[in-house]
Design brief:
375 residues; alpha/beta; 17 strands; binds iron/sulfur cluster; 2 domains; 3-stranded antiparallel beta sheet; Arc Repressor Mutant, subunit A; 43% helix; pyruvate-formate lyase- activating enzyme
């Protein structure tokens, strides 16, 4: 299976913590971008017969519903799929309407990912977002009426000012809406964002590691108690509602990214399009090669990448599958890394494979990085 990711980078406003490839929405720029994207799609191909589709952003629903439906038709014509396929669109709840969701559903959208972040008014404002809880409720109900099979809510913890109680209340409000899937991401303060300046001025406003760990625990306990399976570090699903597009990514499967800043992984080569919007539009609209950065992952690096991705998931890494794909005995090859993590209670190993413990999941990025950097 190949994942098709399409980046729609315009947003109604820019959030102060955001490090994605994004720009404030302007009609003319958004139109030119869409035309460039169509050209890039027209020139693409895939030998695979099975694809998932993910429209991410940015805020894809700054585009008119008809433009989204047209985009999906173009993708469907280019990348034939066996039914049923998973087609996800990320949306901002402020811009959702019942009629738009009906058009999405008719165009094949099967999964709606709503950027909620928090149900606590002060936290929503701290994040620079402008929606309210009522708009999220309306969006979930409209998605159900439109027949969209899977609804996911994105939430964020370690928001400045957030407490265990306020985070629990956001989670419980989310659960009460009956979503099929919840993503719970810890806030990451990236260099170059307004939040990085804020943290430099006022570090105490931000959660320390202890609080962040406690908030992560609250998320796992609350969501598991409500029947969600914690299937990946930041992702929780009701049975049958795991995100197939992301599952393919974590299984080190292939994906093709379209649009500015989009990443691809094909035939062992990882590449990322330029984040320069003008350069992307100029190249894509003329059918030229889009400036990118690429690297071929070979041998140990390729195996390390697979370990890093597999350890993000609840099932972890299968020794047999790893041996078959990379020709390596995991426990022997990574003995110097595995033993200390196992002794520290961060990694669990049995006859079939290895997976992170709950404590290990909280420091997953650090653990995974060591597998990638092993020479
Ligand atoms: S809506 Fe999302 S992509 Fe747009 S600025 Fe906010 S966080 Fe970034």
């Amino acid at each position: 299976m190949t994942g098709i990711y399409v980046h729609l980078p315009f947003c109604p406003y820019i959030c102060p913590y955001c490090d994605f490839a994004k720009w404030p929405h302007k009609e003319s720029a958004a139109r030119r971008y869409l035309e460039a994207l169509h050209s890039e799609l027209d020139a693409a191909s895939s030998a695979d017969s099975e694809h998932t589709v993910f429209l991410g952003g940015g805020t894809p629903n700054t585009y008119a519903p008809a433009a989204i439906a047209d985009l999906l038709a173009r993708i469907g014509a280019k990348f034939p799929v066996s039914q049923p396929r998973e087609v996800t669109i990320e949306v901002n709840p402020e811009l959702v309407s019942a009629s738009a969701l009906e058009i999405y559903a008719a165009a094949g959208v099967s999964r709606l990912s709503i950027g909620v972040q928090s149900f606590v008014e002060t936290e929503i404002r701290t994040l620079g977002r402008r929606h309210d809880a009522g708009q999220v409720r309306t969006a979930v109900a409209a998605a159900r009426s439109a027949g969209i099979a899977s609804v996911s809510l994105d939430l964020m913890f370690a928001v400045p000012g957030q407490t265990k109680e306020s985070w629990r209340s956001s989670l419980e409000t989310a659960i009460a809406l009956g979503p099929d899937h919840v993503s719970a991401y810890g806030l990451t303060v990236e260099d170059g964002t307004s939040y990085a300046d804020w943290r430099a001025r006022e570090p105490a406003a931000f959660a320390d590691q202890d609080l962040e760990g406690d908030l992560y625990d609250v998320a796992i306990d609350t969501l598991e108690k409500a029947g969600f399976e914690h299937y990946e570090i930041s992702n929780f699903a009701r049975p049958g509602h795991r995100c197939a597009h992301n599952a393919n990514y974590w299984a080190n499967g292939e994906y093709i990214g379209f649009g500015v800043g989009a990443a691809s992984y094909r035939n062992g080569v990882r590449s990322t399009h330029t984040r320069d919007l003008a350069a992307y539009v100029a190249a894509a609209s003329r059918g030229l090669k889009i400036p990118d950065q690429s690297e071929r992952l070979e041998g140990a690096q390729r195996a390390g990448e697979a370990v890093m991705l597999a350890l993000r998931t609840a099932q972890g890494l299968s020794f047999a599958a790893f041996k078959e794909r990379y020709g390596l005995n995991f426990l022997e090859y990574y003995a110097s890394i595995v033993e200390p993590y196992r002794a520290a209670g961060l990694l669990e190993v049995d006859a079939a494979g290895a997976r992170l413990t709950r404590r290990g999941r909280f420091v997953a990025n650090d653990i995974c990085a060591t597998f990638i950097t092993l020479p």
